[in-house]
Design brief:
The protein is α/β, with parallel strands linked by helices. The protein has 2 domains: 2-47 and 59-64 and 103-179 and 288-359, 3-Layer(bba) Sandwich (FAD/NAD(P)-binding domain), CATH 3.50.50; 72-97 and 180-286 and 364-415, 2-Layer Sandwich (D-Amino Acid Oxidase, Chain A, domain 2), CATH 3.30.9.30. The protein is built from 12 helices and 17 strands. It has helices at 10-22, 48-56, 60-66, 103-117, 168-173, 256-259, 269-274, 315-332, 336-360, 365-374, 388-402, 406-409; strands at residues 2-6, 27-31, 43-46, 72-76, 82-87, 99-102, 123-124, 128-134, 139-144, 150-156, 158-161, 181-194, 202-207, 211-219, 228-237, 278-286, 298-300. The strands form 4 sheets. A 7-stranded mixed β-sheet has the order 5-4-13-14-15-12-16. Strands 7-2-1-11-17 form a 5-stranded parallel β-sheet. It has a 3-stranded antiparallel β-sheet with strand order 8-9-10. Strand 14 and strand 15 (228-237) form a beta hairpin. Helix 2 (48-56) packs across helix 8 (315-332). The structure holds flavin-adenine dinucleotide. Residues 6-12, 31-34, 40-42, 44, 103, 128-129, 162-164, 168, 189, 246-247, 302-304, 310, 315-316, 319 line the site of flavin-adenine dinucleotide (FAD). The site of flavin-adenine dinucleotide has 32 residues, from helix 1, strand 8 and helix 8.
C-alpha cells in the first residue's frame, strides 16, 4: 500500500512515523509546500495523551531532551492572586510526561526521525498540493512548485491531507465553507529569555476571558546564568480578527496596554512581554465540526480536519492522536478505504467535542468563575467566594473532554 501525505507539519510527520512504525505501508511520501524548513512558531504544549503516542514510535527521549516538563498548573486572577494550583504531568501521576516545547524543536525531532527512518528522498519540499482526483483504483495528487509551476503528479493508494488550517484538500471537498468562525479573541505569542518563575516548572494562567496571559518555560538552562526560554500567549477580547497566519508579526501597541499594570510580587508579566525576542499575532478561530473527513481514498487529519482554538494544549496533540489512530487502523484493516472510514468514525466525535468545549468552556473558565463573583476586584479570602472542590471540578471537566485527565491516559504504577 502506498500513502501520500500532504503537508509536513506536526500531523503529517507524525503520521509518516506512525505508519512506518506499524509497518502499514510499502511506500510513504510526504509533500510539503515550503521550499525550505525553518524552525517556526513559539511554544506548544503536548499533554501525556499525545506524548504517549510519540513515545510509542520511539521519540520520547529525543523530545524530553529538548523540552520542559511542567510539574504544576496554576491559575491567577488579573491581580496576580492565586486561585487554584494542581500538580501536572508526571507530578500528577501520569505515566507519560507533559512536554512544553518550542514548535521548531518538536518539528525538528519529527523531521530528523522521518529523514533517518523513511529516507530524505521521501520528504519532498517545494510541493504545494493543488488538487486531488481519484478513480476506482488509485488517487492522484497534483502539485505546484514554489513559483507556481506544475510538478509531476503522484499516484498512490491513499492521500492523507495534513495541510493545516488553510487546507487545499478540505476546500476541494467543502468549497463553500466561507471564512473562519471568529468569536472575538485575538492572541499574541512570544518567547522571552529570563530567570525561572514560580517553581521553574510551572504553567501559569493569569486572568479570565477579557484578557488572559498563559506562561510556561519551553527550554531550560539556555545559558550559564540559568535562564529559560519562556513562552507566553496573551489573549484579548477584540471585535476584529487579526489575519489567520501563524507567522504574522504582531505590534506591541495592539495588546501591551492591557498588560501594562500586570506586575505581581511573583512575576513582572508586563516586563516579560516587553522583553520578548519577538511576538506573533493569531486570531482565536475555528470551524464548525464536520461529519465527514473521508472521501474514498482521501481523508483529512489535524488542523485540516478539525481546526480548533489554539488553547488547552490540543491543536498539536489532537493531530498526533489522529495520526497514531490512523496508522493503527491502516495496519489492522486490510482494505485502506475501510481504514480511512474507521478512522473518521473513531476521531470525529472526540475532536468535535474539543472544538465545541473550547468555544463554550475554555480553560480560563476557572478564573472566570471567580472574577464573575468578585466583579473583577481583588478578593480577601478565596474560600468566601468559591470552594476548592468547585474549582477542581471545573478544571477536571476540561481535562476529561480534552482527553488528558490522568484517569484516561494512564497512571504510573506507584500512584495507581
Ligand atoms: C509556521 C507555523 C507556526 C506555528 N506556530 C504555532 C505555535 O507557535 N503554537 C501553536 O500552538 N501552534 C502553532 N502552529 C500550529 C500547529 O502546528 C498546528 O495547529 C498543529 O500542530 C496541528 O498540526 P497540523 O499538522 O495539522 O498543521 P501544521 O503543523 O500547521 O502543518 C501543516 C503543514 O502543511 C503545509 N502545507 C500547507 N498547505 C499545503 C499544501 N497545499 N501542500 C503541501 N503542504 C502544505 C504547511 O506548510 C505545514 O508544514 C503553527 C503552524 C505553522 C504552520
Amino acid at each position: 500500500m502506498d500513502i501520500a501525505i500532504i503537508g509536513g507539519g506536526i500531523g503529517g510527520l507524525t503520521l509518516a512515523l506512525a505508519v512506518h512504525h506499524a509497518g502499514a505501508a510499502d511506500r510513504i511520501e510526504i509533500f510539503e509546500a515550503a521550499p525550505e524548513i525553518h524552525p517556526l512558531g513559539a511554544g506548544i504544549n503536548l499533554g501525556p495523551h499525545a506524548v504517549k503516542e510519540l513515545s510509542a514510535v520511539g521519540l520520547e527521549d529525543a523530545l524530553v531532551a529538548v523540552a520542559c516538563q511542567p510539574q504544576d498548573y496554576a491559575f491567577f486572577t488579573q491581580h496576580g492572586q492565586l486561585v487554584y494550583r494542581e500538580p501536572w504531568g508526571r507530578a500528577a501521576g501520569h505515566q507519560w510526561p507533559h512536554l512544553s516545547i518550542h514548535r521548531g524543536d518538536l518539528h525538528q525531532v519529527l523531521l530528523d526521525a522521518v529523514r533517518k527512518r523513511i529516507g530524505k528522498q521521501n520528504f519532498r519540499t517545494g510541493h504545494r498540493c493543488v488538487a486531488v482526483e481519484q478513480d476506482g483504483e488509485q488517487v492522484t495528487a497534483h502539485f505546484a512548485g514554489p513559483h507556481g509551476d506544475a510538478l509531476e503528479p503522484v499516484r498512490s493508494d491513499i492521500v492523507v491531507a495534513c495541510d493545516g488550517i488553510h487546507s487545499v484538500v478540505r476546500a476541494q471537498f467543502y468549497p463553500n465553507e466561507g471564512p473562519f468562525c471568529y468569536r472575538g479573541t485575538n492572541l499574541w505569542r512570544g518567547v522571552t529569555r529570563r530567570q525561572p518563575f514560580l517553581t521553574g516548572r510551572s504553567i501559569a494562567r493569569i486572568g479570565a476571558r477579557r484578557a488572559t496571559l498563559i506562561i510556561y518555560p519551553i527550554r531550560d538552562k539556555i545559558d550559564a546564568a540559568g535562564n529559560q526560554l519562556v513562552n507566553w500567549t496573551a489573549e484579548i477580547e477584540q471585535p476584529v480578527a487579526v489575519p489567520v497566519d501563524w507567522n504574522k508579526p504582531g505590534r506591541l501597541e495592539d495588546f501591551y496596554p492591557t498588560y501594562r499594570d500586570w506586575t505581581f510580587d511573583w512575576l513582572d508579566a508586563a516586563a516579560l512581554i516587553r522583553n520578548a525576542d519577538f511576538n506573533l499575532s493569531y486570531p482565536m478561530v475555528d470551524r464548525d465540526p464536520l461529519t465527514r473527513w473521508t472521501f474514498g481514498r482521501v481523508t483529512l487529519l489535524g488542523d485540516a480536519a478539525h481546526p480548533m482554538y489554539p488553547q488547552g494544549g490540543n491543536g498539536g496533540a489532537q493531530a498526533i492522536i489522529d495520526a497514531a489512530t490512523l496508522a493503527r487502523l491502516l495496519k489492522s484493516e486490510p482494505d485502506p478505504v475501510a481504514a480511512l472510514n474507521a478512522y473518521q468514525a473513531a476521531r470525529i466525535p472526540a475532536t468535535s467535542r474539543i472544538v465545541l468545549q473550547n468555544r463554550s468552556a475554555p480553560p480560563n473558565a476557572i478564573v472566570d468563575a471567580v472574577e464573575q463573583r468578585t466583579g473583577g476586584k481583588r478578593f480577601e479570602r478565596l474560600e468566601d467566594i468559591i470552594s476548592e472542590g468547585e474549582l477542581r471540578a471545573i478544571f477536571e471537566r476540561y481535562q476529561k473532554i480534552a482527553g488528558y485527565h490522568v484517569d484516561q491516559v494512564g497512571r504510573t504504577r506507584s500512584t495507581s
